[in-house]
TrEMBL record, chain A:
Residues 173-219 form the DNA replication complex GINS protein PSF1 C-terminal domain. It holds the Pfam family PSF1_C. Required for correct functioning of the GINS complex, a complex that plays an essential role in the initiation of DNA replication, and progression of DNA replication forks. GINS complex seems to bind preferentially to single-stranded DNA. CDD domains: GINS_A_psf1, GINS_B_Psf1. This is DNA replication complex GINS protein PSF1. It is found in: Nucleus. Component of the GINS complex which is a heterotetramer of SLD5, PSF1, PSF2 and PSF3. GO terms for biological process: DNA strand elongation involved in mitotic DNA replication. Residues 65-157 form the GINS subunit domain. One of its GO terms (cellular component) is GINS complex. It comes from Candida tenuis (strain ATCC 10573 / BCRC 21748 / CBS 615 / JCM 9827 / NBRC 10315 / NRRL Y-1498 / VKM Y-70). PANTHER family: DNA REPLICATION COMPLEX GINS PROTEIN PSF1, PARTNER OF SLD5.
From TrEMBL, chain B:
This is DNA replication complex GINS protein PSF2. It holds the Pfam family Sld5. CDD domains: GINS_A_psf2 (cd11712), GINS_B_Psf2 (cd21694). Component of the GINS complex which is a heterotetramer of SLD5, PSF1, PSF2 and PSF3. One of its GO terms (biological process) is chromosome segregation. InterPro entries: GINS_A, GINS_bundle-like_dom_sf, GINS_Psf2, PSF2_N. Keywords: Chromosome partition, DNA replication, Nucleus. It is found in: Nucleus. It comes from the Eukaryota. Residues 80-178 form the GINS subunit domain. Belongs to the GINS2/PSF2 family. GO terms for cellular component: GINS complex. Transmembrane segments: none annotated.
Length: 219, 200
């Protein structure tokens, strides 16, 4: 029936909504739905054409039948549209969430970084991983432009790190442990030599960004 | 979006204790210190053994450096809390009068300033736990009374409201939706009846 494909897409979106990453874009399914909608559109065109060309040649019953057909086709098209939009909005929201997280997206061929799956207060269904290859072309473009918007907004409020940690501050100095080698990292306030498993006692504001990126772990 | 979905509607416990840390509390400084003008508040001139009111977060910093004693609020002692507990037992339909942030404040003070407390820490801990449990039982009982229009939470503290909020909001919203549809039908019926009456 009409709308079955769209239902499949929505089920997939529902599954994705609880994952901490963005799954592969289902271009085949989307293409099928668009094709179905195009077919329905052609039906509508055909019916309206018929209604227009011979208004006298059809009986009252036929007119009613044609109008029912028209109505059902319209409803099916609207349902397809709704499912497509719901699916796309979910993905867009996830991309926005990721853009705010301040982590660089990874390519599928680079090794996955397990330390990026940040848990704790923010919960697990927070989008923490995104693979650029999983996005469609338009989505990649959207992500790029959204990130650009974000940068524009952040540059207006230089004093505040808008995409910083959402946890309220508890102490000025913290102990951090290095989770993976990062070489020498220059922060605003000095140079760190990130050697795996070494420990530092530093100002929290200096290393917040490194914690977000998964190089350091707060103790 | 800018905010992850799970903290859009609710406060994190860490945010609640952050709010508690902005409350003022009396301290007993051990050293003299000149006043400091901060952006949001002002720390007055501190003189040794002269009580002053400062924000809790300042008090905690000074306390961790051993530069002050915190004056414990008058509700955080065994006698007062026992009385509140008895009250809770005696009146099963209402919550006893405790400060809006009693859970966080007592937690912070018990962990950060245990030597300033008037009573042994373990006894305070157990009475606070008892209070929390009996109040939780009461909120559970209150859940039976949930309806679509209003709810009375007088006497509940911020943390207790916060852990109730996600559940309450969704349930009451659903009830309201259902109720609205029912009420619509009622109106329709009344109109029909009215029309019938007119015809008669």
């Amino acid at each position: 029936m009409f709308g079955d494909q769209a239902n499949k897409l929505v089920l997939d979106a529902h599954r994705t909504s609880n994952l901490p990453e963005i799954t592969l874009y289902q271009s085949d399914l989307v293409d099928d739905i668009v094709k179905e909608t195009n077919d329905l559109g052609r039906d509508v065109d055909y019916i309206t054409e018929q209604q227009r060309t011979n208004p006298e040649g059809t009986s009252a019953e036929q007119i009613v039948a044609l109008e029912c057909q028209l109505f059902v086709a319209r409803l099916s098209m609207r349902r397809n549209k709704r499912c497509l939009l719901a699916h796309q909005k979910l993905r867009a929201d996830k991309m926005n969430e990721f853009a705010w997280l301040n982590i660089d997206p990874s390519d599928s061929n680079s090794t996955p970084q397990p330390s990026l799956t940040k848990t704790g207060a923010l919960g697990s269904n927070y989008t923490t991983r995104m693979i650029l290859d999983n996005l469609s072309n338009q989505e990649q473009e959207y992500f790029k432009q959204y990130s650009q918007l974000l940068v524009d907004m952040k540059s207006k409020y230089v004093d505040i790190d808008l995409s910083g940690d959402l946890e309220p501050p508890t102490s000025i100095f913290i102990d951090v442990r290095v989770l993976k080698d990062g070489g020498e990292v220059q922060t605003e306030y000095g140079v760190f030599n990130l050697i795996k498993d070494s420990q530092f006692y530093v100002r929290k504001s200096d290393v917040e960004r490194l914690i977000q990126q998964g190089y350091l772990e707060e103790l | 979006m800018s905010l992850p979905s799970n903290i859009k509607q609710n406060l994190m416990p860490s945010e609640i204790s952050f709010m508690t840390e902005n409350e003022y509390i009396q301290i007993l400084p051990r050293y003299s210190m000149k006043s400091i003008q901060l952006i949001g508040t002002k720390i007055p001139n501190l003189r040794a053994l002269r009580r002053e009111k400062v924000p809790l977060w300042v008090a905690l910093i000074l306390k961790s450096q051993g530069k002050c004693n915190i004056v414990i609020p008058d509700w955080l002692n065994l006698i007062y809390l026992k009385a509140r507990y008895d009250e809770e037992v005696k009146f099963p339909m209402k919550f006893s009068d405790l400060p809006f942030n009693w859970i966080d404040l007592s937690k912070i003070l018990l962990s950060k300033a245990p030597d300033d407390l008037p009573d042994p820490v373990h006894q305070l801990r157990s009475i606070i736990q008892d209070l929390r449990e009996i109040r939780q039982v009461k909120t559970r009982k209150g859940l039976k009374e949930v309806n679509e229009s209003n709810i009375g939470l007088s006497g509940l503290s911020l943390l207790e409201i916060n852990e109730l909020r996600p559940f309450m909001l969704s349930v009451m919203n659903k009830l309201r939706e259902i109720h609205e549809s029912v009420r619509h039908d009622d109106y329709d019926d009344e109109e029909v009846i009215d029309v019938d009456d007119d015809e008669d």
